[in-house]
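Discrete fold record:
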Amino acid sequence: MHLVRYVDPGTGTARVGRHEGDRVTPLPSVESFAELLRLPATEFREFLERNSSADSTPESGARLLPPVDGRTEVWASGVTYERSRGARVEESDAGTVYLHVYDAPRPELFFKAPAWRVVTDGDPVAIRADSPLNVPEPELALVINSHGEIVGLTACNDMSSRSLEGENPLYLPQAKVYNGSCGLGSGIRPIWQVDDPTDLRIRMTVRRDGSEVWRGETSTAKLHRTPRELVDALFAETDFPDGAVLATGTGIIPELDFTLAPDDLIEIEIDEVARLSNHVVRGRETISWFTESPDQPKARA
């Protein structure tokens, strides 16, 4: 079972529901994901297990939306895998910065996107028009309630402009935060339904003109920091009244001779958790629907 946001085909409004099999069933008396993420973990679970509706919609008739809304923020973690440490050192003239942060007491955390700037499965992700080297970064994402408790999991595509960050570590916000830079799986898997979040296989494939041009695989068992450690650092001095999503970093990074191209297809899969598929576009003009009202479901390109 996954929790989803979707467009009700009858009313055209956004709803919250369960996605099970090929059906989407609305949750009664819930208008937003933000409401659910205000609940303590025990109440969150009790509500989901107690409430269901016989009124369901075939998956084909319900357009799935990004699983974040309201004041929920997406954050991300950096240099949490040995592969990530090596890649950052390789691409940067200031590589010792990444060597230090890998083993430092405090993890690297950075803001990734507000809810309105997130895309989901089937939407396009973007590469910056001013960056010649761009890659996807597949990551396990923790869904955290306002009390700092992990209540769910999903997949994140933390798009990255490697040329910008490699030029100067202080350009990280520009390399990571722009229109189309953050993709999340359309469903949130409740944490209690996943056997072991610290041992999940993550796979990514990039296809170009129908052919596979890059493939990589890792496991969350290779994470250098625990999910709890990352969450505690994020919530240490910051409030998230509508909860947060925290991507845990990537252990899959292509070599420096690979870069994404427009029309590439990125496919990410995390065992037991989510699948995420996005085509690549270039530049902000290709995803202008980001400027639509945040109170209405986005009209996807």
The helical segments are 33-36, 41-50, 82-91, 96-103, 162-167, 172-176, 227-235. The chain has a mean pLDDT of 90. The CA atoms of residues 69 and 115 lie 5 Å apart.
